[in-house]
Amino acid sequence: MDDREVSKWIAFCGSMKASEVMIDYAVRAVDKALKQGHFIMIGDNPKGVDYAVYTYLAKQKVDRMAYSVCTAVGEQPRSVSRYTNNDFTSKRRFEDYQNRDFNMVDFADITMCIWDGSSKGTKAAFDYAVSIQRQAYLVTFDTGKPVLLSSIKESK
Fold first, then answer.
1. Average model confidence (pLDDT) for the chain?
2. Do 143 and 109 form a contact (C-beta atoms < 8 A)?
3. Is there a domain that residue 140 lies in?
4. HEC assignment per residue over 19-72
5. How many domains does the chain have?
6. Is residue 4 assigned to a domain?
7. Do 71 and 46 meet the contact criterion of CB atoms below 8 Å apart?
8. pLDDT tens-digit map of 35-70
9. Are strands 135-140 and 147-151 parallel, antiparallel or unpaired?
């Protein structure tokens, strides 16, 4: 094997109540990952980080083979529905979306959590990644600027 980096799946989990600074950070991180040849997984929330990332990918016409929009079992992606001006009402509970996030972490090589400091779902996804010893990053925006709170380095 040569020294080139192998493409990875990166799960992006983000707070529903995201500031413009958080959204800008998430979009730049996604753009960087795509330029490095990685694949992206995002949730389907029609608000916050999920929606901002999906909107960016759609407007940039990113090849659909480069990313996956993940949803709760039995639902259409809500972010896609909102973007195409269709109904995106959900009948699911918090636990269903937490399950979606955990499945994303299970399948991802790396988890990137963009956190507002209070969202239970984003923090739970990071805690789950840590519990299964995945490479994971939690970026918080409590001060208005991104702060990397914790990471787990990839084991060699």
1. 85
2. no
3. yes
4. CHHHHHHHHHHHHHHHHCCCEEEECCCCCHHHHHHHHHHHHCCCCHHHEEECCC
5. 1
6. no
7. no
8. 999 999 998 888 999 999 999 999 999 998 999 998
9. antiparallel
Task: Specify the CATH number for the domain of residue 20.
Answer: 3.40.50.450
End-to-end CA gap in the chain: 15
Length of the chain: 156
Spatial contact of 37 and 7, defined as CB atoms under 8 Å apart: yes
pLDDT tens-digit profile of 11-36? 999 999 999 999 999 999 999 999 99
Sign of the torsion angle spanned by Cα atoms 44, 45, 46, 47: negative
Q: In the 8-state DSSP scheme, what is residue 154?
A: P
In 10 A of CB 108, how many CB atoms? 23
* Bridge partners, residue 137, by sequence: 112, 151
| 18 lies in some domain | yes
* Domain, as residue range, for 94: 9-151
